[in-house]
Amino acid sequence: MDESKQASSEGNKSYDSDMYANIKSTTSLEKAKKSLITDESSENDDEQEEKKSKQQVMFEPPNSKKPMNLSVFDRRNFLIHQYYIRKDFNSCKALIKEILEECNELYDYPIYIRGKIAIVEKELIMALECNREVTNFINKERLYSFEKARSLRPQKSNYPREIGHIQFLLGNHKKAAEILLEAIKLNPSDTKAYYWRAMALYHIDQSDESATQAQECIMSAPNFVKSVEILKFLAELCAQKNEINSAIEAYKKALELESEDLDALVSLSLLYLKVQNDDQAFATLGKALSYDPSHSPSILTAGAIMQGMGDYDVALIKYR
């Protein structure tokens, strides 16, 4: 009886042990499945992260750790560019018009693209207007930057010089002359400031009086004889005032510095003709054509001289 109870007890223990083993095995299996699912999920996450990182690299600048934070205008610029390269000019122009109305035309990239479309569509006047607007916009941006820099360091001479130059480019000639005078006072040896001031003074009304003021400004500049650009401008001023010999000397000095300046050679040859020095005129033109046989101004000048001398056959050959 006791033996049967003991056997029964041992049987129960064996059964419980088997049940425990089965439960443990099932639990282990479930854990293994969960682990496998987790690993797969982790791998998928890794793949997604890798894709994200690749996408970020595509839109990130070099050495950048963060994706680009594009502004509204930057995103619209991207759309404008996409429309343009796809040649969807109608959509592109519509978007440009919308942007320019919102920002009162104070945004250069849409204007620039509008100009490029105008060139493609043969709207040359529109293209010129767009180019002018972009140039003015850039000059105004430069002006603001230099004025800000000047307010921080008012004793630095190159800031008023640049501001004066930009004012000249914007057509504010009187204001440019005043600002460039300040630059000269800050740095009396700044030859560029003298040159741009002379340009500004002359372009106020381009009269003989303005030409005289510009001449005086140039002549007061230190080392002006070392600048081809300044010497050529001085020659033009002298020629306007009919000071032919002075103009010839200025061009000759410029050519000593830069012997292959074709424009200076052609202008000098014309001045020689004015003083009836035909031999020097032909020699100077010949020198220009030896440097560049296809230089149109030299060829046309030579043709005009031949025509004036009655040698129409040679003139016709030159014009061809």
Automatic annotation (TrEMBL):
TPR repeats lie at residues 157-190, 228-261, 262-295. It comes from the Eukaryota. Residues 32-67 are annotated as: Disordered. Belongs to the BBS4 family. The keyword Glycoprotein does not apply. Keywords: Repeat, TPR repeat. One of its GO terms (biological process) is cilium assembly. The keyword Repressor does not apply. This is TPR_REGION domain-containing protein. InterPro entries: TPR-like_helical_dom_sf (IPR011990), TPR_rpt (IPR019734). Transmembrane segments: none annotated. Gene3D superfamilies: Tetratricopeptide repeat domain. GO terms for cellular component: ciliary basal body.
